[in-house]
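Worked example 3 (structure in, sequence out).
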């Protein structure tokens, strides 16, 4: 895995118009999930590297948690990758989905089992774009948001609280002869175990709260805070 490319961490601040419905998601069946990479014809030689690997590893070591809200919350660390091996002139669609990492719930709960969330694919807003476009810069999914609103109309990824999830990146070759999602579509899927996380409505692990404060510019006002402030941070961050 390549060394991380230094880059400023994106904040979690929302713009006023950001909750307008977007056409960045598709309710389609995702490609099969391999352990690392699944390659179809015409997609050989493509490599993907996670960025800020050391930061992801810090979170992974203590059990990464991501906040989900009704309005939608961005991921931190942000999911960023470096892609190589694409044909410079061919067009590609880059998209993400987030799938259950296991069948466990990480907190006892009474009542009926929670229903499975509808599978959504978040299409990167630059899609479709040429290989040269994707490879000349980092690909950031900073606008992707996580929600627990089952009726979300904004295209956010819908998750259940206290469940563990695995983000997946899909690279699809845009082919005018084979429609998106057809059985002949060339694609590859990439997963990185260090990006798995548990979805929560407030942080359960104080170590995660501290890591977010130390590394997320949006949380800089909480640095050096006492325990009461950290508890409040866990509720709103």
């Amino acid at each position: 895995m390549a060394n991380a490319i230094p880059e400023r961490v994106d904040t979690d601040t929302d713009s006023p118009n950001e909750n307008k419905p977007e056409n960045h998601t598709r309710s389609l069946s995702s490609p099969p999930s391999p352990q690392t990479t699944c390659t179809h014809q015409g997609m050989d030689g493509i490599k993907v590297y996670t960025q800020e690997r050391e930061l992801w590893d810090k979170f992974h070591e203590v059990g990464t948690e991501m906040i989900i809200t009704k309005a939608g919350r961005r991921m931190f660390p942000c999911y960023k990758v470096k892609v190589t091996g694409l044909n410079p002139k061919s067009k590609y669609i880059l998209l993400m989905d987030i799938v259950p990492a296991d069948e466990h719930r990480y907190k006892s709960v009474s009542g009926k089992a929670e229903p499975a969330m509808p599978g959504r694919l978040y299409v990167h807003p630059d899609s479709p774009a040429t290989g040269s476009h994707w490879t000349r810069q980092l690909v950031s999914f900073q606008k992707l948001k996580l929600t627990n609103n089952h009726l979300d109309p904004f295209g956010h990824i819908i998750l259940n609280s206290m469940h563990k999830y695995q983000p997946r990146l899909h690279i699809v070759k845009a082919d005018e002869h084979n429609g998106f999602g057809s059985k002949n579509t060339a694609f590859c899927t990439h997963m990185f175990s260090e990006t798995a996380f548990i979805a929560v409505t407030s942080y359960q692990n104080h170590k995660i709260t501290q890591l977010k404060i130390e590394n997320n510019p949006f949380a800089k006002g909480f640095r050096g805070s006492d325990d009461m402030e950290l508890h409040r941070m866990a509720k709103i961050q």
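Notes: Residues 53-62 form the longest helix (10 residues). The first strand starts at residue 25 and ends at 26.
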